[in-house]
Amino acid sequence: MSMLNIDLKGKRAFIAGIGDDQGFGWAIAKALAEAGCEILVGTWTPILKIFTTALESGKFDESRRLKDGSLLKFAKIYALDAAYDKPSDVPEEVRENKRYKACEGYTVSEVAAAVQKDFGSIDFLVHSLANSPEIKNPLLETSRQGYLAALSASSYSFISLLAHFGPLMADRRGATLSLTYLASERAVPGYGGGMSSAKAALESDTRMLAFEAGRKWGIRVNTISAGALASRAAKAIGFIEHMIDYAMRCAPLPEPLKAEHVGHTAAFLFSDFADAITGATIYVDKGMHAMGVGPEILEKA
User: Fold this and answer.
1) 1 belongs to a structural domain
2) In whole angstroms, what is the distance from residue 60 CA to residue 208 CA?
3) Above 60 in pLDDT, residue 3?
4) Is residue 78 within 8 Å of residue 42, measured between CB atoms?
5) Taking a C-beta distance cutoff of 8 angstroms, is the pair 223, 281 a contact?
6) Which among 26, 105, 148, 295 would be 20 to 30 A from 253, CA to CA?
């Protein structure tokens, strides 16, 4: 029986949102690298120095190891704050922050221009970033400013990235991928600060952008609805361990979700095997999205 091997040799991906070796962005980078893809990274400006220092010191070497024994390499790491499209959008207090002053060209338009200058083109774009300043607040207690900040950083950021990187992907059978969560379509108490709204917007935008970017540049646009994972970013929600425990009890496949499950799905979605898939939300959550109530209802019957 012949094997269907995913081959991404000669391809280049820009992954926005890697800041450590725990999250889905890192897992996607590893899976694409395993398939031969060259990896560029956009790291949130305030943590760029922390990330690059950890990388250079060998802190991530164990998790960088690929199946052939080599280490995951990044062709270049860019400072990126996707909340800002151009330099004039950056407030003075942010510009003057010491971590921002240490970096140059971290707005979306500047990073896209730098990537074009450095590499000419990319084939794949990954949006693996989200932020809400009020994520621990219930929606009813979320301020207008906090709500709009969540949408700006977590959903509009994808529109901006695609608008600026789309020309670099034109006529290359390019594809994009973002990461969403079930709170976009089901009530998840505690997932607050407008993040549930931002994920709903991201999924809606996936469908519209699939049409627009498909017709304009021939780019496919999909999103992965991933299950709960105890990444550094997810721990900001405050009750991620309880969410994982709940999924383990209630999902059709009662076993832990690993970041690599999302990485493998991403590699497939970027491959030629998925060249007819666009505008889709792909669930990688052990089937949790299919459940209406948990199995404990049977135990009480």
Assistant:
1) no
2) 37
3) no
4) yes
5) yes
6) 26
Token couple for 89? 């959008």
Q: Rounded distance, CA 169 to CA 74, Å?
A: 19
CA-to-CA distance for 85 and 107, rounded, in angstroms? 5
- The alpha helices in the chain, defined as continuous H runs, are 24-34, 48-56, 61-64, 92-95, 98-101, 108-119, 144-151, 157-169, 195-217, 240-250, 259-270, 296-299
Q: Is residue 6 part of a domain?
A: no
- 84 classed as catalytic: no
Domain span at residue 267? 12-299
Q: pLDDT tens across 11-37, in order?
A: 999 999 999 999 999 999 999 999 999
| Residue 111 is assigned to a structural domain of this protein | yes
Q: What region does 279 belong to: left with phi over 0, alpha with psi -120 to 50, or beta?
A: left
Given the residues 78, 84, 191, 283, the one annotated as active site:
191
The values of phi and psi at residue 150, to 5°, are -65, -45
Contact between 25 and 137 (Cβ < 8 Å): no
Q: What is the CATH number of the domain that holds 92?
A: 3.40.50.720
Catalytic residue among 100, 147, 181, 283: 181
- The answer to whether position 7 is within a domain reads no
| Model pTM score | 0.94
The mean pLDDT value for 89-108 works out to 96
Specify the number of domains making up the chain.
1
Cα distance between residue 287 and residue 16, in whole Å = 27
